[in-house]
Every structure is written in structure tokens, then in C-alpha cells.
Design brief:
288 residues; alpha/beta; UDP-N-acetylmuramoyl-L-alanine:D-glutamate ligase; 9 helices; 38% helix; globular
Length: 288
């Protein structure tokens, strides 16, 4: 028996990336799709409360809004219940998304694509985003999904985790090697992705092993984890891609931006749920 003592609601998925961005910048816009149901109303309401522009969120009365319910007991997740119906966009929905993106990009500093494999991000939409970013000389950062196999050729920075790296490279995952700088199968998978995608930077997140940063033909840079306590890893990747992008947009080197992302995700895993990291918390990590 589960006795419910309280409930809380947070935007998840790409909306959580937007929440993390909003902690550091005054204007964030999110693009996606939600159902025409009460859950979609709640999602859009939460985005509005956070000061996030949700004009790019389409509402589909025939689509249930993705809802993930986590049952927490004594600061530990017991089970997660997912209610969703992933599927591709209709032609009309794709055209609306493309129109919104085309109109928004001139006033945009950069684009973050958080692909959760729900069907919104197709290769056609990815190609359009990449082409628009190149045309308008905007930064495009990608947090890929392991099962969509999309080509992100020419993206500014791509942030897969270890499993996503092997999956995108078409290679079988192997057990982690310590230190990761000597993990030959992982390094070979990354080099394969670099040849395929040609990103300016590729940052692989490795959980308790930290991160590996790759820039062109340079030797990879290992950034050890800064997490002190791990309560919940959900949302840590959202925090990492948000802060990584913000760092690069602010003029940080890829190494410094990756260090900021590493610090931020180390803070995020010390919180329950899809938590955000504040500017004050990130600044305090340098004092420690």
C-alpha cells in the first residue's frame, strides 16, 4: 500500500532544459507538442509561471500529454509510471514547427535540441534546424536520444551519454574503463561520431566518471565528477546541456563550459526530481 502524503508537479523533458536555462537568462522559448488535455494545460501553466515563452508549444487534442509519475519514499524513487503515446508529427504540425523556428531564430542567441525520442524531432526537422542555424550563424547544441539515430552533422556541440555514444556509433556498449581516457572502445565510438557529425565539440557524460570532452583532433580532456551526494540522476543531463550551452554562448572555451556543466550536474544529482541549478549554487561551487 502507498499512502500519498503530498504531490508536486514539474515540467520535464525539453521543458526541464528550458527551466535550467531560465535560471541564468531572462528570455527562454520552448518548442514542442503537448496534448489538449488538463496535463497539457498544467504544463503550459508551469512554463508560464517560470517565465518561459511557450508560444512554440503546439496543442493536439488527439494526443495525450506525456506524464511521468515518480513515487518517492524517504528520498528514494520506488517506481516510475509513464503515460505517453509517442508518434511523429503530422505534415501540418511539422510545417507549424518549421514556421515558428524560422521566425524565431533571427532573435535567438542559440538553439538547444533535447531529443527525448517522442517523435517531435525527426531527421527532416533536425536538418531544417541545422540549416537555419548555419544560415543565421547561430549556435546549435544537441542532447541526442539513443534510439532515434538522427544525423547531427555540423552541430556546434553534441552531448551524448555513454550509452547514447555507442548507440549512435552503431557499436556494442562495453563495461566502463577507469580512467575513461583509456577506454579504447569508447574513444573509438566517439571518433566514429566525430567523423559522422563533424561537431565543433563533443562532450560525453559518464555519470560517476565525470565527462570527456573532444574537440577535433585534439586529445580528449577528462573532467572528473564533482558530485558529493547522489540522490537522483533524473534531469542531470538537462542541467548539463543547458549550462554547457550558456557557457559557450557567454564566450567560455569548450573546456571551461564543460567544467561549468560538470559542476552544475553535480549539484543537480544532489536534489530530488528534475531540479534546476541556480546561479548562486553554481557560484558557490567555485568557493568550495
Amino acid at each position: 500500500m502507498v499512502e500519498v502524503s503530498g504531490e508536486s508537479y514539474y515540467p520535464g523533458g525539453a521543458a526541464n532544459v528550458a527551466r535550467n536555462l531560465r535560471e541564468f537568462t531572462s528570455h527562454v522559448a520552448v518548442m514542442g507538442i503537448a496534448g489538449g488535455d488538463p496535463w497539457g494545460d498544467r504544463l503550459c501553466g508551469l512554463l508560464a509561471e517560470s517565465g518561459i515563452d511557450a508560444a512554440g508549444v503546439q496543442r493536439d487534442p488527439a494526443l495525450p500529454t506525456t506524464v511521468k509519475t515518480r513515487i518517492i519514499a524517504r528520498n528514494q524513487q520506488v517506481v516510475r509510471v509513464d503515460r505517453e503515446r509517442p508518434g511523429p508529427l503530422t505534415d501540418e504540425q511539422f510545417q507549424r514547427a518549421l514556421t515558428y523556428l524560422t521566425r524565431a531564430i533571427p532573435q535567438t542567441d542559440g538553439i538547444v535540441v533535447a531529443d527525448y525520442g517522442k517523435g517531435f524531432v525527426s531527421q527532416e526537422l533536425a536538418d531544417a534546424a541545422l540549416a537555419l542555424a548555419k544560415e543565421h550563424q547561430k549556435m546549435l547544441a544537441v542532447d541526442p536520444h539513443p534510439h532515434t539515430s538522427l544525423n547531427w552533422h555540423g552541430a556546434t556541440v553534441i552531448k551524448p551519454n555513454r550509452i547514447e555514444t555507442f548507440s549512435a556509433a552503431g557499436a556494442r556498449p562495453t563495461p566502463p574503463v577507469d580512467p575513461p581516457i583509456k577506454d579504447r572502445p569508447l574513444l573509438e565510438a566517439v571518433r566514429s561520431l566525430q567523423r559522422q557529425w563533424r561537431p565543433a565539440s563533443l562532450l560525453v557524460t559518464l555519470g560517476e566518471q565525470g565527462m570527456l570532452l573532444f574537440e577535433g583532433d585534439r586529445d580528449p580532456v577528462h573532467i572528473p565528477t564533482r558530485a558529493k551526494e547522489v540522490f537522483d540522476v533524473s534531469g542531470a543531463g538537462d542541467t548539463a546541456i543547458a549550462v554547457l550551452t550558456l557557457g559557450l554562448l557567454a564566450g567560455a572555451t569548450p573546456v571551461d563550459a564543460a567544467d561549468l556543466a560538470n559542476r552544475a550536474s553535480g549539484i543537480a544529482v544532489g536534489k530530488l526530481g528534475t531540479a534546476t541549478v541556480t546561479r548562486a549554487e553554481l557560484e558557490a561551487s567555485f568557493n568550495r
